[in-house]
Specification:
The chain has 98 residues and is mainly alpha-helical. The protein contains 5 helices and 2 strands. The N and C termini lie far apart (77 Å).
Length: 98
């Protein structure tokens, strides 16, 4: 019974932390790792290669804008099969051979 209570409390704590992340506009390094669900070493690699938008105001600590991270996550969208077929049909209709 105690284990179940402790597990539920841990779940509640995790949900509260996730809610706090969603309220912040600027995330520190650890918050960004949690938000993106990636390891610290991978995030360091992305920042050192300038593949992810970030701020380094004093040359040491890294900060991230949450909305920019959302945009970064949603880049390179892959179209569904239905969308590709629709685009192909539209192309054939508008570009008939003459």
């Amino acid at each position: 019974m105690e284990d179940l209570i402790l597990q539920k409390l841990a779940n509640i704590e995790m949900m509260l932390q996730e809610q706090n992340l969603l309220k912040k506009d600027v995330l520190n390094f650890n918050d960004a790792c949690s938000y993106l669900d990636i390891s610290a070493s991978h995030l360091y690699k992305l920042t050192s290669q300038k593949q992810i938008p970030h701020f380094c105001p004093q040359g040491k600590k890294l900060y991230f804008n949450r909305t920019e991270l959302d945009e970064w996550l949603q880049r390179n969208r892959q179209s569904s099969t239905d969308e590709i077929e629709t685009m192909a049909a539209n192309y054939l209709l508008t570009n008939r051979r003459k």
